[in-house]
Write a structure and sequence with these properties.
Elements (H helix, E strand, L loop, with lengths): L1 H21 L9 H5 L11 H9 L4 E5 L3 H6 L6 E2 L5 H4 L8 E5 L4 H5 L1
Length: about 110
């Protein structure tokens, strides 16, 4: 029974991904397929040393803090914009950029989800 369920799930995944590829959807941000299928976190993570280098080199980017307000008030990275993760769907337009957006939180899970 378990093998049959795995086979059906694989078939659905292949068909779903193929349909997305046919539509030529842009791959600029995590898609619905990635929200359903496993997300490759290596693609969407940044090392602290790389972020420091971006800051030191004055590279243009937006630093978005998705923690709660009380967490932000305790400590935050200078220049970060606070939009708590739960408010992001209605406030995402506040983040205007043509470049990179670096999102961070306390442990990384909210940042990765954002």
């Amino acid at each position: 029974m378990f093998q049959y369920i795995r086979k059906v799930i694989r078939k659905i995944r292949r068909r779903y991904v193929r349909n997305l590829q046919r539509r030529n959807l842009p791959k600029a941000a995590p898609s619905v397929a990635e929200a359903i299928l496993p997300l490759d976190s290596d693609t969407y993570t940044i090392a602290p040393s790389h972020l420091k280098a971006m800051i030191d080199q004055d590279k243009p980017f937006v630093l978005l803090d998705v923690r709660e307000k009380w967490e932000y008030e305790m400590v935050h990275i200078e220049g970060a914009i606070l939009i708590p993760f739960g408010e992001l769907p209605r406030r995402f337009r506040e983040v205007t950029t043509g470049g990179e957006i670096v999102v961070y939180c306390h442990w990384g899970m909210r940042g990765l989800d954002a």
